[in-house]
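Late entry, evening session. Most of the bench is empty. Finally got around to the prediction I had been postponing all week. Sequence below, unchanged from the version circulated by S.P.
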Amino acid sequence: MQRYCLAIDIGASSGRHIVGREEDGQIKTDEVFRFPNGAKRVNGHLVWEIEKLYENVVEGIRKAFGKYPAIDSIAIDTWGVDYVLMRGNKQASPCFSYRDERTQAIIGEVHDRISFETLYEHTGIQFQPFNTIYQLYEDKKAGRLQGVTDFLMVPEYLNFCLTGVKKHEYTNATTTGLVNAQTADYDKEIISALGLPAELFKQLYPAGSTVGTLKPEIAEAVGGNCEVILCASHDTASAVEGIPMQGEQPYISSGTWSLLGIKSPKAHTDPDSRRGNWSNEGGVGYVRYQKNIMGLWVVQSLKKELCPDKPFSQIAEEARESKFSDYVDINDNAFLSPQSMKGAFDAWFRSEKSTPQIESDYFRCAFISLAVSYMESLKELEHNTKQKFDELYIVGGGAKNGLLNELTEQICKIKVKALPIEATAIGNLKIQLQRGNKHE
């Protein structure tokens, strides 16, 4: 019997509902609904419109049942880090966006209580000012944790709204910076040192676990019922699960940011990994040892400034014809959030003989710089893992950029396998379909 599963994949700017089925050993997909997402400013803070997000989730499920009446299961993945505080079954405070700057003032206090070196030894999670550990500590300082009974990561909260069941999933929990890399459970020592309520940190469940079935009123509204299960609910975890690769070859999930790493059987929490800001995040039976580096955002920013109406395909072809051959340190703070990306490139080359002269020079420089950044990170990866790699898998938007793939292959001296697939949705569906096969 043909099995249909629904992947709900939600990013910071949009979400989509994709129905998948297995056919001839491959996962075939059909996008049935897409909706916008985004944070808004409320009382001086950036917060997610979580109720609107939930309404879109339900509408997409309704559309999916309308086209495929026999859906077997549903699973939701989203970005990591962010969460909803609960008092019983009610939301206790706004769902803050990781882009809100509320944690900046308390990071030093957290590290006074427990040093980042100690945090990294325990969790192996890279420093990011928006990690959940800092957000929850700021909640504590602001008094928001009084009377709180639960905190649910965004996909867990949406699962709860659909089923009435609260269940914590492992891969997304690792983005909190509060999960021990060795035990794969919440770290009691860190939680105690920060004075966070221990009762909030409940059992973690692996991908493939059942959450529950749709509540009767939801089933009636969407025109069907099925199980809701846990996929690898951190979207990057689902993306990596969706890459058809063998062994410990490196991958790049290439989008606005580039996530470069390997599937590792164990966490690497050594000083070199900490100094390089490598992260050890949860995977499905492995650790994603990876680094967050600059991605296509720099190209998107140049496009917005120099040629907003020009398609990316034309930009790449013109960059291919450019003779410019120099590069910048694309991970330098100068390129993180400049008022003018072109101005940031101009400033970098101000004292150099070679300076971008025409539009295509800027884009070629950006592509070369990204490839050089990949090379440097691959060298770090080989040093830290004591391995030599001969293949690099690339998925996401960057996989469709032939010029960037060619430059990456030339500069990194590695065979690039570019897979222009919807890796996150496929990884989400893979967990659901494998689980279903086990139950047959």
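Two things to note before I forget:
The chain is about 40% helix and 20% strand.
The mean pLDDT is 95.
Will write this up properly tomorrow.
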